[in-house]
Write a structure and sequence with these properties.
This protein is α+β, with helices and mostly antiparallel strands. Helices cover 62% and strands 16% of the residues. It has a four-stranded mixed β-sheet with strand order 2-1-3-4.
């Protein structure tokens, strides 16, 4: 979940990146930083620790990131560290990615099925979603045998549940309503 601070940082960096025509580069760098922060939680703790001086934190950032990422991303990392909000980097990256997707007319859709999709079914589903949404679709697939069959589609705050399990649950409620 993204809070207000993450949105403010993300929006500022996104607008700057668009002005500098480097939105794609910044997205890739923020994705990489988010992955680093997620895989090494001690980094966020170190950059937020009150026992570590700001100069030590900035020295660490300079030694490990300067010249390896763009000046824009480097400056963002320094600013969030100075403000004691370095742990927000993954959330900032997530909000930035959503802004970038909107700019590129991309939709990230999560699809859950009872068994893995075949290549042809995946292609048909992607084509259908792209036609309906009028966007390029990035499919993220999950397999959950408990849905028994059908498909559950999640996009943003919208869920379409076409699973056999949900249909059986609805039928069960209907029968209980008649019997009760």
């Amino acid at each position: 979940m993204t809070g207000r601070a993450e949105i403010v940082y993300s929006e500022a960096v996104f607008e700057l990146a668009r002005e500098q025509d480097c939105a794609d580069e910044i997205k890739n760098e923020l994705d990489a930083l988010a992955e680093i922060f997620d895989s090494a939680p001690e980094l966020g703790k170190f950059l937020s620790a009150p026992t570590v001086t700001l100069s030590e934190k900035l020295s660490f950032i300079e030694k490990n990131f300067k010249g390896k990422i763009s000046e824009t991303t480097y400056n963002l990392l320094c600013v969030v560290t100075e403000k004691g909000r370095a742990q927000l980097v993954p959330s900032i990256a997530e909000d930035y990615k959503n802004r970038w997707y909107d700019m590129k007319n991309i939709a990230e859709v999560k699809v859950t099925t009872g068994i893995p999709l075949s290549d042809s079914l995946r292609a048909k589903l992607k084509t259908k979603l792209e036609t309906v949404m009028k966007k390029t679709v990035i499919l993220t697939e999950n397999v959950d045998p408990s849905i028994m069959g059908g498909v559950v589609i999640n996009y943003g705050n919208t869920m379409t549940d076409g699973s056999v399990r949900s249909k059986l649950e609805a039928l069960q409620k209907q029968i209980k309503g008649v019997i009760a």
